[in-house]
């Protein structure tokens, strides 16, 4: 159905199942679709010209605009809170306020412009497709809110609740106005770059179809099998939004009569 899915960077464990999901979502129409995406290494590039691009937290840590004193404080925060984050003895409920505390304290400075952070190629077309068809985009990230805002220049979409690694899913929106707006959108295009991103759609109201796209950026041979078992479409070392764009374009086109 979609020529871009024949690219050498595209891997699918079950192409027939992918086609069935695409047809179902296309038939349902764009008014039923929402896009849920991670940010770092998903909307942003993993690398450019062979050089790693920084995730949002590293934008602060690597900045020449941040004083050495501030960098030392950031390091202290990391040393204080990171052991708690990875300690299995702590419950999620116990970790939540501490993780929020960590990222809020580290949330300082406007240093994006001098960083090497970049959105993936064709990102503007991706946002244009979403706007053209009024498809909501939810970006759930463990990154710093203001840094994300500065990178993608969408200033009105990221105010309010901090969505971080321990409530990085749509269920975190249950008590917000955004959730009411999404209740009628039962089909999800989920885009991530880690196996942990697969939970982002948890809490979607009466979900019908979900198409999961995973960017496999690194350690391909080591991770490929697990990604293929988890994601419907795996994009190997693909620094573009070409496949998500092609899917959005497909969803916006009327379904051929033979499929209706």
Q: How would you characterize this protein structure?
A:
It is found in: Cytoplasm. It holds the Pfam family UMPH-1. This is 5'-nucleotidase. InterPro entries: HAD-like_sf (IPR036412), HAD_sf (IPR023214), Pyrimidine_nucleotidase_eu (IPR006434). One of its GO terms (cellular component) is cytoplasm. By secondary structure, the chain is of the alpha/beta class. It has two domains: 3-46 and 118-259, 3-Layer(aba) Sandwich (Rossmann fold), CATH 3.40.50; 52-105, Pyrimidine 5'-nucleotidase (UMPH-1), N-terminal domain (DNA polymerase, domain 1, Orthogonal Bundle). Helices cover 38% and strands 12% of the residues. The protein contains nine helices and eight strands. The strands form two sheets. It has a six-stranded mixed β-sheet. A two-stranded antiparallel sheet has the order 3-4. The chain is globular and about 55 Å long. Residues 155-166 and 255-260 have low confidence and may be disordered.
Short summary of the structure?
By secondary structure, the protein is of the alpha/beta class. The protein is 38% helix and 12% strand. The protein is globular and about 55 Å long.
Radius of gyration: 19 Å
Strand order of the largest sheet: 1-8-7-6-2-5
**Beta-strand content bin:** 5-15%
Distance from N terminus to C terminus (CA atoms, Å) equals 15 Å
**Overall 3D shape:** globular
Fold-level CATH name of the largest domain: Rossmann fold
In sequence order, what are the helices and strands, one letter per element?
Answer: EHEEEHHHHEHHEEHEH
Which structural category fits the helices and strands? alpha/beta
Tell me, rounded to a whole number, the average pLDDT. 78
Q: Which CATH class of the largest domain applies here? A: Alpha Beta
Domain module tally: 2
Count of distinct strands = 8
Number of helices: 9
What percent of the residues sit in helical stretches (DSSP H or I)? 25-40%
Catalogue the unreliable spans. 155-166, 255-260
CATH H-level superfamily title of the largest domain: HAD superfamily/HAD-like
Q: Specify the CATH architecture of the largest domain.
A: 3-Layer(aba) Sandwich
Keywords: Cytoplasm, Hydrolase, Magnesium, Metal-binding, Nucleotide metabolism, Nucleotide-binding
Protein name: 5'-nucleotidase
InterPro entries: HAD-like_sf, HAD_sf, Pyrimidine_nucleotidase_eu
Pfam families: UMPH-1
